[in-house]
Design a protein that fits this description.
Blueprint lengths: L2 H12 L1 E4 L18 E4 L11 H17 L4 E7 L6 E7 L4 H10 L4 E6 L2 E6 L4 E6 L3 H4 L2
Antiparallel strand pairs: 1-3, 2-4, 2-5, 3-4, 5-6, 6-7
């Protein structure tokens, strides 16, 4: 892996994820210990190519429609760089299997997806390779 490629994965694993209702949790604050495992995906900016807002929203609507069609429970989730310079709305998939997550990555031409489970953020490449992992502090361990 080239240094440039390694740097991209380092940026991804340093990203923060904000979850919408009903969880209202964020990886940059304390993470509830009882959240279910979920995959986090986006349709925005394929392969990091910056698209205009209308095109990104259309892609996100297509992903939402596919999730509904497949009866995948999902919530709003937003991924962002640690410095907040890059923000991408997406979805937290609550009952999707890993292979379906990879299918979404291929279909929407994305480089990576996150898996959030057991107070850990894992970054997977579109081929299913685990690229990076980091721990997320949670309310239970932070308070003692």
């Amino acid at each position: 892996m080239s240094p440039a490629d390694a740097a991209i994965w380092d940026i991804y694993v340093a990203s923060e994820v904000d979850l919408g209702e009903p969880f209202h949790a964020s990886t940059d604050r304390f993470w509830p210990h009882d959240l279910p495992r979920m995959l986090v995906v986006t349709a925005y900016n394929p392969q990091s190519a910056v698209l205009d807002r209308c095109e990104n929203e259309a892609r996100s609507s297509q992903m939402r429609a596919l999730l509904s069609e497949r009866s995948v429970r999902h919530i709003e989730a937003t991924g962002r760089s640690s410095d907040h310079s890059w923000i991408e709305p997406g979805f937290g998939l609550l009952d999707a299997d890993f292979e379906f997550g990879l299918e979404l990555l291929r279909r929407f031409d994305q480089k990576a997806m996150f898996e959030l489970a057991d107070c850990t953020l894992k970054v997977f490449a579109a081929d299913g390779s685990l690229m990076r992992t980091r721990d997320i502090p949670n309310r239970q361990t932070a308070s003692g």
